[in-house]
Amino acid sequence: MKPLLYGIGVSPYVRKVRFVLAFKGIEYDFDPVIPGQTPEDYSEFSPLKKVPAFRVGDFAISDSSVICQYIEKKFNHQSIYPDSAEDLARALWFEEYADSRMTEILGGIFFNKIAKPLVFKMPADMERVAELEARLPEVFDYLEKHLEGNKYLVGNSISLADFSVISILQNFIIAGYTIDAEKWPGSAAYHQQIIQHPAISMVLEKEVTEMAQMA
Predict the structure, then answer these.
(1) Which residues pair with 30 in a beta bridge?
(2) Cystine design at 87: which of 9, 48, 82, 115 (Cβ 3.0–4.6 Å)?
């Protein structure tokens, strides 16, 4: 039986898990679940009723960070974590940064501009979007400082750090934005090259198909 991932494709947390599964070459089934519209028994394995959740046989767990750690331990080929203690710490930090500050600003733009009207049938809050747009330098100045022309955020190979950051960046792109290459050339170049990675491009192509089917 294949593992089962619950969630909606445009969720950056779901996307992060899908990147990890694609990177490790793990086939899985996908059950579209929208936050706030979860099945009756969903809280049994996702008590906060958030996405994603992940099931392997009789075992089920929620929270994207926990799921990624579980997948790494369960399917321990092609590691998503760097080898050294220092690089591991950096990768885990970038995952936390993506899940917190980047989600607050970039994810907030996507939620108030796109998700509210399309998913939750609520008016877009463009005043809030403008407030968050003014804070974009907080994110991109920080990424620019750490990229410094590097291909990956941590070390010499793709890791959970990249999967986490790109997951959030992609919603920024879906919301109709581009990364200003004059202000943040390293971030713009990083985004353009990292979405060409086979695991990332595969998931993004699936999302396009799924969104077309939902339209």
Answers:
(1) 5
(2) 82
